[in-house]
Amino acid sequence: MKNRLLGVIDATTYHEELEELMAHRSLAAVPFAGRYRLIDFVLSNMVNSNIESVAIFPKFQYRSLMDHLGSGKNWDLNRKRDGLFFFPSPIIDGAKKRIGSFNHFAANLDYFHRSKQEYALISNCYTVFNMDFRPVLERHILTGCDITEVHQGARSLEMYLVKTSLLIELIKSRDVTGYSCMNDVVSDISHSYKICGYEYEGYAEMIDSIDSYFSASMNLLDPQVWKNLFLKTQPIYTKVKDEPPTRYLKGVSVHHSMIANGCQIEGTVDNSIISRGVKIGKGSVVKNCVIMQKSQIGENCILDSVILDKDVKIEPGTILAGTSETPYVIRKGTVQGALMNS
Known about the structure:
The protein is α/β, with parallel strands linked by helices.
């Protein structure tokens, strides 16, 4: 089965419900779990499934994504043959939420023609999960399916396995058939293809709104969820950064939280996820929060149910509060002060 699968990640999706976190980056590059990006999960799953050629199709604000992935070295995809490929979309139309635009693929059809892999796995970039795709391929071949769609219960995980030759055929015939993406094919009751479903039974969260992002982040603080997502036998890879351990000053209180490297904690942290390089000032209380990289929280602040994007500065004495259903979101690079709340 080795090297029979081609990985295709659709990173063109834009969810309006995530606008606060997508103002400066694509959905694939949204930070998650303190040190990861959303794309790390599907990309790591592909690598762990012996996929050695992965094509990423981005569209919006993809500079951050390309900076994160680089040459693919951290995923062992910096290769002379195959490896990691970027194909930014040349299409300037509105955003579509369907995965696998045939128009986008058509602009890079040579890639599919040159690929030696017999099968292609097309996936979204925003599902947080840990899955081995090799059993999907085995089932696909055994049952003689034309297209296999991965499900979890009644929900489609928007991942499709198909022969590369059939994918090329679907791309070329899109103007005749009217199919614009893989979902159009599998949902058309009049087609002649054999469509199969593969049931995924592990942990999976599709991040398509602020609510789902916040809920999935808080779920990581459940040890059982963490255990089901971060498997020793199938690690989730990310960009490596050399940072010192987090520094905890005298008198701090940290409970039921995840704190990445390079932080300086002087206050209280409870039930929160703190990313790399964050500073929390003396006397401040951070509760039920997601704090992204290099954000700075001044002294005597109170934050409850808040999402701080990267490089946010919270001035001393500031009080911010949301709810578990509607967290308070501060955009990247924003300065939030106590006077603004009065």
